[in-house]
Amino acid sequence: MINASGREKMVLIGFSMKFTIVFASATGHTEDIAERLDQLLPDSELKELSDFQDIKDMEACEALICCTPTWNTGSDVKRSGTVWDEHIEQIPNLNCSGKPVAIVGLGDSAAFSKFFCDAMEELYTAFQKAGGNLIGHVSGEDYIFDDSKSMINGMFCGLPIDEDNESEKTQDRLEAWCKTILEESKQ
Predict the structure, then answer these.
(1) How does pLDDT run across 113-165, given as a tens digit for each residue?
(2) H helices within the chain, ranges in order?
(3) At residue 13, does pLDDT exceed 70?
(4) What is the rounded distance in angstroms from the CA atom of residue 105 to the CA atom of residue 100?
(5) Distance in angstroms (rounded) separating the CA atoms of residues 95 and 139
(6) pLDDT, tens digit (0-9, with 9 covering 90-100), for 53-111
(7) What is the pLDDT of residue 16?
(8) Do the beta carbons of residue 20 and residue 47 sit within 8 Å?
(9) I want to staple 23 with a disulfide (CB 3.0 to 4.6 A). Which of 67, 93, 128, 180 is the partner?
(10) CA–CA distance, 64 with 148 (Å, rounded to integer)
């Protein structure tokens, strides 16, 4: 299947899960990553978080990919520095029972190496409390960083992206991760 940009979307035979890619962005990097995911995934829908009339509207989505930057480094709460912070306390009250939910986090592994993609964990924990089926964990082996709250049981709780220092790795990471979440969402 070819999308509007001429790139091939990933297609798995017999697969029809629709991902809603939800993002909030501070500088545009997170929006760019969300748009790139939309180009890769079949039958996906791209939405800015602020487009939801009510956060409860996420319950109607078949599957979610939530994209967030990390700006409020070192904080224990509200680490994205975006509109996600206004809704993070409401997410655990959603009914996401069994819904596939994947998280993408953007961070700077050089300047903020001790807080790399920390906001990803906050979304992960909130959707886990809402009953979501969290998919898309990633090994930290290919990343250089000092610490991250998003490392859970030896794995990142989603896909970390570093557009500041490793942008040359982003496309390969996105493509591999999309294949992973498409497979995991079928289970």
Answers:
(1) 899 999 999 999 999 999 999 999 999 999 999 999 999 999 999 999 999 99
(2) 29-40, 84-87, 119-129, 170-185
(3) no
(4) 17
(5) 28
(6) 899 999 999 999 999 999 877 778 888 989 999 999 999 999 999 999 999 999 999 89
(7) 58
(8) yes
(9) 67
(10) 23
| Separation CA 31–CA 22 (nearest Å) | 9
Residue with structure tokens 């089926």?
Answer: 133
Q: Examine the pLDDT at 14 and tell me if it is beyond 70.
A: no
Give strand pairing partners of 151. Answer: 156
Q: Do 61 and 98 form a contact (C-beta atoms < 8 A)?
A: no
Phi and psi at 98, nearest 5°, equal 75, -5
Q: Which amino acid is at 84?
A: W
The single-letter code of the amino acid at 153 is: N
- Distances in Å between the alpha carbon of 6 and those of 1, 31, 44, 76, 80? 9, 20, 16, 42, 32
Burial class for 123, CB neighbours closer than 10 Å (0-12, 13-18, 19+): buried
